[in-house]
Design brief:
Threonyl-tRNA Synthetase, Chain A, domain 2, nine-stranded mixed beta sheet, alpha+beta, four-stranded antiparallel beta sheet, binds serine, BirA Bifunctional Protein, domain 2, 585 residues
Length: 585
């Protein structure tokens, strides 16, 4: 069995249990530049977990492309990946623990043929926020899980939430016993020695954690599950790492042939980061110095550095991209469609980085001159960090160059600064997740409706071909990116603002209906990426001025919005303008 076969089996299995297969959302969350990347299958479904009606029903299944970058520096070991695919099934207020556990058990033992002895499960031990999950434990026993394969753990292990605030709940996790010797007599699934590998996580999402840390019950009891495809594939094939499976093996072998100085860690980093960057670029990501663009930049730079380390000629990158696309295109047909742009972006960024490295060397020489004049033998951590952070100059390179001149670097201080920096960006990412779809405060809902009005107004005032390119909403303001080839004139801005305010004054009703995707398009509804929507879609209309495919939520009437004010209009990227606006109440 290959990864794609596991994926197909999974979707078919849940389809036969009444689930609708929905498409993977793009890696770059639609309508929401505030979220870095899609990090879990549940992320695009947050509004529905909170109670919005999903047009495809209450039982859903999909494979979701995910990127998690918290562990980017761990990539190269035998398990961490930045890009991975998550298989998931959801109950939106439909079945709960019993059916969920029974289906998971059946899929693992019957469809995948995993012997029960190889499986262990964990359930929530209970605390002051939620009771001990005896129910899940007894269902596991009923289906045939031996009692000594059922473990109870606290929130650290058996509670799932994305970030600090949002829908959450106790989970039951399934583990695969690799057959390795236990590391101690207390070795259990929560241990990281590698004997037990987590394979599936079923979250019983019935709580909402608020900013102040308190929990309340959601409108409905949901199930949210996630199964990491690469990991399952590796275990079923009896391989030690995902790099030994068909997903990575061809590129790993090619790198080994090309390398003049082989190093397995570097090969893994190149293989992993290349796949991850290709997937991000294919979904519209481009390198830049901020947020997700910066993550992509780091991935490409790290890959380039390790190609250098392997002493592989950088012109080989063309061939490596082709090989990777050909290997993965059955799983991700978009890669083949976007072959040229993937190449262009990767090669350009690689070239830019090579220039950066040259620049960094000059900066290094300047730093050396200063340090010599101070009669020091050591390059301080601040300098090493600045070379790294500002010039993308890796500390290993700084260290090598320093050694050549009989100097050393303060690696300890560098590590300290680096950790602080990492902590800040980790907090930033969590912040970004929170800022996303999970926030359904009255303010953000008003801004969401105002976004639709603005989109409609721009089409009338500026040009009917204006299309939304992105949107970012906080409780304080909205930001809207749209295709447009010129800076808006003062008159255009004023007219747009006036038109939106006129519609607000007219107290237009906001209505929602479900329809077939084709009918929605026929009826002229606005949408961003048509192929990414499921067959049945939700369409929001505002009076007869706006009609858009959208997951909601929205206000009931435009009179709730207050006064719309454009604060700024500026360039966002080539051919894309950005409006920042507020609603005054
Ligand atoms: N949301 C849970 C996870 O990411 C289950 O899908 O593990």
């Amino acid at each position: 069995m290959r990864a794609i076969d596991i994926r197909n089996k999974y979707l078919k299995f849940f389809e036969s249990h009444g689930h609708k297969v929905i498409p993977s959302a793009p890696l770059i969350p639609e309508n929401d530049p505030s979220v870095l990347f899609t990090t879990a299958g549940m992320q695009p479904l947050v509004p529905y977990l909170l109670g919005e009606k999903h047009p495809e029903g209450k039982r859903l299944t999909d494979f979701q492309k995910c990127v998690r970058t918290v562990d980017i520096d761990e990539v190269g070991d035998n398990r961490h990946l930045t890009y991975f695919e998550m298989l998931g099934n959801w109950s939106l207020g439909d079945y709960f623990k019993e059916e969920s556990i029974r289906m998971s058990f059946e899929f693992l033992t019957k469809e995948l043929g995993i012997p029960i002895e190889k499986l262990s499960v964990t359930v929530f031990a209970g605390d002051e926020d939620a009771p001990r999950d005896e129910e899940s434990a007894s269902i596991w026993k009923e289906v045939g899980m031996p009692e000594d394969h059922i473990y109870y753990f606290g929130k650290d292990d058996n509670w799932w939430i994305a970030g600090e605030e949002g829908p959450c709940g106790p989970d039951t996790e399934m583990f695969y016993d690799t057959g390795k010797e236990p590391c101690s007599k207390d070795c259990n699934p929560s241990c990281s020695c590698g004997k037990y590998v987590e394979i599936w996580n079923n979250v019983f999402m019935e709580y909402y954690k608020s900013k102040d840390g308190t929990y309340s019950k959601l409108k409905q009891q949901n199930v949210d599950t996630g199964l990491g495809l690469e990991r399952m594939n590796m275990l079923l094939q009896g391989k030690e790492t995902p790099y030994d499976t068909e997903i990575f093996a061809p590129i790993m072998e090619k790198l080994s042939k090309l390398a003049k100085k082989d190093d397995i860690t570097s090969r893994r980093i190149v293989a992993e980061h290349l796949r991850s960057s290709m997937m991000i670029i294919s979904d519209g990501g481009r390198p830049s110095n901020v947020d997700r663009g910066y993550v992509l930049r780091r991935l490409i730079r790290r890959m380039t550095r390790h190609l250098n380390k392997l002493e592989i000629d950088l012109n080989e990158l063309f061939g490596l991209i082709d090989l990777n696309i050909d290997n993965l295109k059955e799983m991700y047909p978009d890669l083949a469609k976007n072959r040229e742009i993937i190449k262009q972006v990767l090669i350009e960024e690689k070239d830019k980085f090579m220039k950066t490295l040259a620049h960094g060397e000059k900066e290094f020489e300047k730093a050396m001159a200063r340090i010599k004049s101070q009669n020091s033998q050591k390059i301080d951590g601040q300098t090493v960090f600045r070379l790294y952070d500002t010039y993308g100059f890796p500390p290993e390179v700084t260290s090598d160059l320093a050694k050549e001149q009989g100097f050393e670097i303060d690696m300890e201080e560098f590590q300290k600064l680096y950790k602080e920096h990492q902590e800040k960006s980790r907090m930033g990412s969590e912040q970004k997740f929170k800022g996303g779809l999970a926030d359904q405060s009255p303010e953000t809902i008003c801004y969401h409706t105002a976004t639709h009005l603005l989109n409609a107004a721009l089409k009338i005032v500026v040009n009917k071909d204006v299309h939304q390119k992105g949107s970012n909403i906080t409780q304080e303001r909205m930001r809207f990116d749209f295709s447009c080839d010129h800076k808006l004139t003062d008159e255009e801005k004023q007219k747009t603002e006036d038109l939106v305010n006129e519609w607000i004054r007219e107290a237009l009703p906001v209505t929602v209906e479900e329809m077939k995707k084709e009918d929605a398009i026929q009826s002229g509804a606005e949408c961003m990426f048509i192929e990414k929507y499921p067959d049945i879609v939700t369409v929001y209309s505002i009076g007869n001025v706006s009609k858009e495919l959208c997951g909601g939520p929205h206000v009931k009437n435009t009179s709730e919005l207050g006064t719309f004010k454009i604060k700024k209009e500026e360039a966002s990227s080539a051919g894309v303008r950005r409006i920042k606006a507020i609603l005054e109440k």
